[in-house]
Amino acid sequence: MTNLPYFDFLFAELSKQNPAIEKSFGRHVHWGYWADPASATGDDEDYGHAAEALTQELCRLAGIAEGDRVLDAGCGFGGTIASLNERFNRLQLTGLNIDDRQLERARQLVQPLKNNTIEFRQGDACAMPFGDASFDRLLAVECIFHFPSREAFFKEAHRVLKPGGMLALSDFIPMTMFLPFTWLATSKLFDKFNVFGRCDVQFTINRYRRLAAAIGFVPVAERNVTDNIVPTYQYLQQIGRQLASTSSGLTGTLLRVTELRAVFRLLSYYLLSFRKA
User: Fold this and answer.
1) Considering 142, 156, 222, 259, which one is annotated as catalytic?
2) What is the DSSP letter of 123?
3) Terminal Cα-to-Cα distance of the chain (whole angstroms)
4) DSSP code for 78
5) Which residues, 6+ apart, have CB-to-CB distance to 190 below 8 Å?
6) Residues with Cβ within 8 Å of residue 253, at least 6 apart in sequence
7) Contact by Cβ (8 Å): 85, 116
8) CA–CA separation, 33 vs 226, rounded Å?
9) 169 pairs with which residues across the strands?
10) DSSP sequence for 208-235
11) What whole-number distance in Å separates Cα of residue 277 and Cα of residue 274?
């Protein structure tokens, strides 16, 4: 299982029935999206709504329609599956995750509605336990940087998607000038300080374009939404201060550095979609 300290933290706080964590990260475990960042209020409920908004933005890029078979790779607590389940009819929804703890919570939280079917499966997104051409749409919401290989994931995505199927993902993408420093996110020297676990943030937008072409995907959308996710960093710093006694003292420092990277476009946040040729 991938070592992700922030999930250990979330499970610990959820077990304490922490209302702030339940509202902000009990359903979605990813950054928030604000159509108008100036409207962010900084409270737990606002963040929960923003996390849901990011999911819906990415689902729109995937072009999901009633009757589709949809796979959410790296499904976390099942928030994206829950969102689709509430908004669509007759979907066949599958959540895939390598961590059984996350899947256990997802199964408890998400039950089928509106003639949808839901299945949560344990497995590796780079070696998926599904047959060829099994899905119409494939989502990877803010998780691909944890995968062992984007190339392996793209090959698997291409294999399990039907012809014309769509892959939509969100990722942190560096500017070329920032690349010499991105190795820090994967260096073992920083393991004990890294609350986010292994994060490969060395994949540029040009590398995505080349990878898509090599695998057989056609790029459909490239949306740089960095401005829309900036309030996330402010909220996380706020949570870090509130929970200082139970979280790493370095967390706030790391988040401040991350915010500066985003503001100066050194590490941008993209929503991407690709069609299987």
Assistant:
1) 142
2) -
3) 33
4) S
5) 184
6) none
7) yes
8) 9
9) 140, 272
10) HHHHHHHHTEEEEEEEE-HHHHTHHHHH
11) 9
Give me the architecture of the 5-276 domain, per CATH: 3-Layer(aba) Sandwich (3.40)
The angle that helices 100-109 and 5-15 make with each other, rounded to 10 degrees, is 40
Q: How would residue 223 be classed by pLDDT, with cut points 50, 70 and 90?
A: very high
**Token pair recorded at residue 161:** 């998607």
Q: Which stretch of DSSP H or E encloses residue 59?
A: helix 44-62
Q: What is the pLDDT of residues 140-181, one digit of tens each?
A: 999 999 999 999 999 999 999 999 999 999 999 988 777 766
Q: In this structure, which amino acid lies at residue 235? A: Y
Give the Cα separation of 149 and 144 in Å (integer): 8
- Residue 180 exposed, middle or buried by CB count within 10 Å (0-12, 13-18, 19+): exposed
Residue 142 is among the residues annotated as catalytic for this protein: yes
Strands 135-140 and 267-276: unpaired
Assess contact for 28 and 81: CB atoms under 8 A: no
Q: In what order do the strands lie in the sheet with 267-276?
A: 117-122, 92-97, 69-73, 135-140, 161-174, 267-276, 217-224
Question: In b/e form, how buried is each residue of 86-112, taking b as 16+ CB within 10 angstroms?
Answer: eebeebbbbbbbbbeebbebbeeebee
CA atoms within 13 A on the CB side of 162: 8
**Model confidence over 185-210: pLDDT tens digits?**
555 655 555 566 677 888 999 999 99
Q: What is residue 89's DSSP assignment?
A: S
Q: How does DSSP classify residue 178?
A: G
* Amino acid found at 9: F
- Domain parsing of the chain, residue ranges: 5-276
Whose tokens are 């560096």? That residue is 174
Comparing C-alpha atoms, which of 182, 165, 174, 158 is closest to residue 224? 174
